[in-house]
Amino acid sequence: MWIQAILIVAMLAVAFYLLRARESARHLAIRRGLVLLAVVAAVVVIILPGLLSLLAHAVGIGRGTDLLLYAFIVAALFYVVTDYKRSVQTNRANTQLARELTLVEARLADAIAALGEAPAVQKRASTARSTGAQRK
C-alpha cells in the first residue's frame, strides 16, 4: 500500500530531524512551510470534505478520517520532537549562562577582595617601615 510507504518515510523524516544537530534558518523555513501547507490543506478539506475520502482511497485507506488520523499522528510526533529539541537547546543555553554568571561573580569577588586587601597591605607595610625606622 502507498500509505504504508508514505508513513514510513514520514517517520524516518521525523527521526532524521531528531538526530539533526541543531536548529538553523533552513529548519525554520521548512517548519513554516509545513505549517502553511497544513493550513492550506485544512481549508481545502473543510471546503471539499469528499476530497479527503478520495485521497484516502487513492493511497489505500478506507476512510478519510483514518487518513486524517495518520496525518495528525505524524504532525504530533513532529511537534513533540521539535519541542524536545527546543527544550534541550534552551537547557544548554541556561546551563552555559549559569556557568558564565558563576565565573563572573567569582572574579568580581576576587577583585573586590584584592581591592579590600590592598589598602590593608599598604597600611601594614607602612606600619612595618615606620616601626623598623623607630627601632633603628
How many H/I helices? 4
Strand/helix succession: HHHH
**What is the number of E strands?**
0
- Give average pLDDT, whole number: 80
Fraction of residues in helix: over 70%
- What composes the largest sheet? none
Measured by DSSP, the beta-strand proportion falls in: under 5%
Report, as a whole number of angstroms, the end-to-end distance. 106 Å
Structure overview:
By secondary structure, the protein is mainly alpha-helical. Helices cover 91% and strands 0% of the residues. It contains four helices and no strands. It has helices spanning 2-19, 25-47, 49-59, 64-135. The chain is rod-shaped, with a radius of gyration of 33 Å. The N and C termini lie far apart (106 Å).
Question: How would you sum up this structure in a few lines?
Answer:
The chain is 91% helix and 0% strand. With 136 residues, it is an all-alpha fold.
Defining key terms:
mainly alpha, rod-shaped, 4 helices, 136 residues
Layout of secondary structure:
Layout: H1 2-19, H2 25-47, H3 49-59, H4 64-135
Helix pairs in contact: 1-4, 2-3, 3-4
